[in-house]
Design brief:
The chain is α/β, with parallel strands linked by helices. The chain has 2 domains: 213 residues, HUPs (Rossmann fold, 3-Layer(aba) Sandwich), CATH 3.40.50; 89 residues. It has 10 helices and 11 strands. The chain has a 6-stranded mixed β-sheet, with helices on both faces. A 5-stranded antiparallel β-sheet has the order 7-8-11-10-9. Strand 1, helix 2 and strand 2 form a beta-alpha-beta unit. Helix 8 packs across helix 9.
Length: 342
């Protein structure tokens, strides 16, 4: 008789979901692919054993004629399994370029709306180890710094879902293992043909990833890099918090920013100065979007040199005007509206 648990090498439902039990009701995002169907099965096993509350949702982007049937397949499986499920459709408008990026934004917006309707406290996606490796490789090729090379975080509030937590509990398991979960437990799934379409950057990246894996830079190595970068970022965050505790913010007279004494930070690593600068700019501008890394690093380098050599410096970054005087006082002011032609 077949066990209700997955194959021996597969993830244990309790191990996957127990860390998130405190969130309460969870919305499981299900496309119908093997990874998301495995996630849904694991969630159902956990909820039945522990009493956890889950709801499933599928987004039909309307980009492929098969998508409606795939959503119907998920809905039918959920009905048979006794799970609540909702299908939502992206009504467009459909852009002519960057379609995958826009579809991703629409998907998270729609899933967030579903979560609100069902009083779900978090959104759960089926991102796995292969997705993590692709993300890290993509960011490596794009010149990301330490924070970017961490890859995706298990728990995140990254702007796509507003203040709704985004949970990724399967980052330690690869796609092949998750597909085995489906096959072992006779869970239906579909394959998205767009994953093999060379018009998309991710598809081309997978081909490159195969070549790199043959040379010893595969999923295991890339995800290990991500874990090490996460450790390095934690050290930066810890050191930054210790330095920020020493800061005294003096509001500007027009309430457009504040002034800081950066003189005690002369000699600090530029990475720390960059992290502090990023945080202080966010406080002044209220913008969650970080400045471009190359510009942030350039400003941090200029400030680091100015502090050591007691030189004044001025620049703009992330919607703020920065002024460093010879005594190490740094003024951060919200940038005013730019005039056309200037």
């Amino acid at each position: 008789m077949r066990s209700v648990e997955g194959p021996p090498e597969g993830p244990d439902p309790h191990q996957v979901f127990a860390p998130f039990a405190a969130y309460g009701r969870l919305l499981i995002a299900v496309s119908g692919g093997p990874d998301s169907m495995a996630l849904l099965w694991l969630a159902r096993q956990w909820s039945q054993a522990s009493g956890g509350s889950i709801v499933a949702a599928t987004v039909d982007h309307g980009l492929r004629p098969e998508a409606a049937d795939e959503a119907a397949m998920v809905a039918a499986w959920c009905q048979k399994a006794g799970l609540k499920h909702e299908t939502v459709r992206w009504a467009g408008p459909y852009p002519k370029t960057r379609i995958q990026e826009r579809a991703r934004e629409a998907r998270y917006r729609l899933l967030t709306e579903v979560a609100r309707r069902h009083d779900a406290a978090a959104l759960v996606t089926a991102h796995h180890a292969d997705d993590q490796a692709e993300t890290i490789l993509f960011r490596l090729l794009g010149g990301s710094g330490v924070a970017g090379l961490r890859g995706m975080q298990t728990v995140a509030t990254d702007g796509l879902t507003g203040d709704l937590p985004l949970l990724r509990p399967l980052l330690d398991w690869d796609k092949q293992t998750l597909e085995k979960v489906c096959l072992y437990n006779t869970i239906p799934f579909v394959r998205d043909p767009s994953n093999d379409d060379p018009h998309y950057a991710r598809t081309r990246l997978r081909r490159l990833a195969g070549l790199l894996a043959a040379e010893g830079l595969g999923t295991a190595e890339l995800t290990r890099l991500g874990r090490r970068m996460a450790g390095a970022q934690a050290v930066i965050d810890w050191a930054m918090a210790a330095q920020q505790a020493r800061l005294v913010r003096v509001p500007l007279s027009d309430d457009a920013g504040h002034r800081l004494d950066f003189a005690p930070f002369a000699g600090l690593p530029e990475a720390l100065i960059a992290a502090m600068l990023k945080a202080e700019i966010a406080i002044v501008t209220g913008e969650l979007q970080a400045p471009r890394l190359d510009r942030l690093e350039g400003a941090a380098q200029a400030i680091a040199v100015g502090l050591l050599q007691r030189q004044a410096w001025r620049g703009t970054l992330g919607g703020a005007v920065l002024k460093l005087d010879k005594n190490g006082r740094l003024e951060i002011r919200r940038e005013g509206p730019r005039q056309r032609g200037r």
